[in-house]
Amino acid sequence: MSGLDATALRDWLSCHFPEDAGPDAKLAFEPISGGQSNPTYFVTWGARRLVLRRKPTGPILPGAHAIEREFRVLRALEGTGMPVPRALVLEEDAKVLGTLFYVMERLQGRVFSDCALPGLIPEERRAMYLSMAETLARLHAVRPDEVGLDDYGRPGGYFERQLRRWSKQYADSPGLRIAALDRLMDWLPANMPADDGAVSIAHGDFRLGNMMFHPIEPRVIAVLDWELSTLGHPLADLGFCVMPWQTATDEYGGILGLDRAALGIPTREEFVAHYHAHARPTPELTRFHRAFALFRFAVIFVGIADRARTGSAASDEAAELGPLAERFAIRALQAAGIDEADTKTETRKAVS
Q1: What is the DSSP letter of 86?
Q2: Does domain 6-105 have CATH number 3.30.200.20?
Q3: Which of 8, 103, 133, 243 is the most exposed place for a label (fewest CB within 10 A)?
Q4: Nearby residues of 53 by Cβ (< 8 Å), 6 or more positions away
Q5: Is residue 38 left, alpha or beta, with left meaning phi > 0 and alpha meaning psi from -120 to 50?
Q6: Distance CA 320, CA 301 (A)
Q7: What ranges do the domains of the chain cover?
Q8: Coil, strand, or helix at residue 332?
Q9: Euclidean distance between the first and final Cα of the chain, in Å?
Q10: What is the pTM assigned to this prediction?
Q11: What is the pLDDT of residues 273-304, one digit of tens each?
Q12: Distance between CA 175 and CA 188 in Å, rounded?
């Protein structure tokens, strides 16, 4: 049970959930694997089943690993019809467990890391993908000002700010330069659509692996991992969500190259059309939005590789995921319609 102080956690739970703190109350917890950022644990406290998420230990960048924001958005979305776990308690005293943390209810359901959804029948796969599209549309229909999130981010200019942020993060990386990313840093600003003023609550990491599905029914019952959520453009989430259609099975579980019709997986066009059929009026998804999503994920993989080199990544898989940065950058060039020739990693000083 490494990673948490059992005595401190027991004392904290006894204080916040006294009804479960009988003399024979048993405490058990185990880390949930797969996360690259905020350590997450299943916690059993007597008859109560919880999930605990906390900031990682050690130095972190200002604003990073903002579990306070996760807790806030989960609380705000309660009662909106958006499927989220119920956030219970936020602990802002880092002395309790060494870092800030919160606990939420533990739901029973299915989480899939493989977008091919192995072990299911075609009808189930199709229904699950369409449920994911409907869930994203439901999120974007929530008005931030109506749930107390009007100050959750800066409205307008979302893609311009995001390009600056992720370009700087890549430029500041001490690792090798990736020619495909360098080309994207020129193409994306030159092809960015004019700001249309669309603003929604943006999840920031809306993908199949962050969905929990009903134990037996093909529908989303919870959207997880809200660390990157903010006020943003709905097409940022939609562009990110369609990445699996543009990446291969060994590229973080994509579905490119699979017989998707036989599997029952809708086409990308069907998925996007289903989103639009359930969403507020939203502009069309363009090459820019799809390329931007892949670019952003490529830079995230650059960061994972950097943390793996310094030994500060939260997952043992970090060293294996780092090389995906170049592959996702090449996929972004393909989405943009750019000739991806000459995209080998090259060594030179980072651009500033």
Answers
A1: P
A2: yes
A3: 8
A4: 38, 39, 40, 41, 67, 70, 101, 102, 103, 104
A5: beta
A6: 10
A7: 6-105, 122-346
A8: helix
A9: 43
A10: 0.89
A11: 999 999 999 999 999 999 999 999 999 899 88
A12: 22
